[in-house]
Amino acid sequence: MDLLFRLSSLGWVDAAAVTLQVALFLGIGWLVEHPPAGRPSMSILMADYRRDWMRHFVTRQQKIFDATVITSLRQATSFFISGTMIAIGGGIALIGNPERVMILAQDLTLDQQATVIEIKVIFVLLFLANAFLKFIWSHRLFGYCAVLMGSMPNTDDPLAFHRAAQAAEVNVTAARSYNRGLRSIYFALAALGWLLGPWSLFLTTLATSATLLRREFISQSRDIVMKRDA
After folding, report:
1. Structural domain contains residue 21
2. Is residue 31 part of a domain?
3. pLDDT tens across 197-223, in order?
4. Which are the contacts of 16, defined by CB distance < 8 A and separation ≥ 6?
5. pTM, two decimal places
6. N or C: where does the chain have the smaller number of CB atoms within 10 Å of the terminal CB?
7. Cα angle, residue 75 at apex, residues 74 and 81 outer, rounded to 5°
8. Distance from first CA to last CA of the chain, Å, rounded?
9. Which residue range(s) make up the domain with 214?
10. Please, which residues have CB within 8 angstroms of residue 12's CB and are 6 or more apart in sequence?
11. Residue 192 carries which DSSP code?
């Protein structure tokens, strides 16, 4: 009942803005991972390169480079795990102290109740929590990939390329979770616009969605990655 009372203080414009953001968050995630056949996303293109990487890993003489790349990927996920954990802790501390919430509202020159601000902060925290879980799973999968790479037999062993294919698919799955975590971070930043009102949330959501779609489908880096042959 208390939750319903708090939600009743929000209008239909707020509901529409939140619905739009959630819909775009889910829709863009699906489109990036299931793009049209004629226009693959950057994530799909990089998945093919990850598979090429594991195939070349089998015959590469000096494998220290591959170990370094896997380590750097795990460090990247560790960085975001720490960052999202700190952000979640800060958000929980904020909504647990009503006085600070009112100070935040005054600093933003908003005429809003503390409960409304709390709901908006919780909305941001939901995206951050999703990102945190995705990054943790990605970090673990990259670790699994490293173990599979380490267990790969010599080139003349018939199991070598099968093991390389296994490592590649685990690597691709790890990257997928990593990308999902990044999208959650993007939309968590967009959700901060709700603190300024529903129309600001509309703008930040549309701007974030446009940025993600451009980087996945029409960026210069994508054009470069598309040129697989010299």
Report:
1. no
2. no
3. 899 999 999 999 999 999 999 999 999
4. 198
5. 0.89
6. C
7. 90
8. 64
9. 2-7+41-226
10. none
11. G
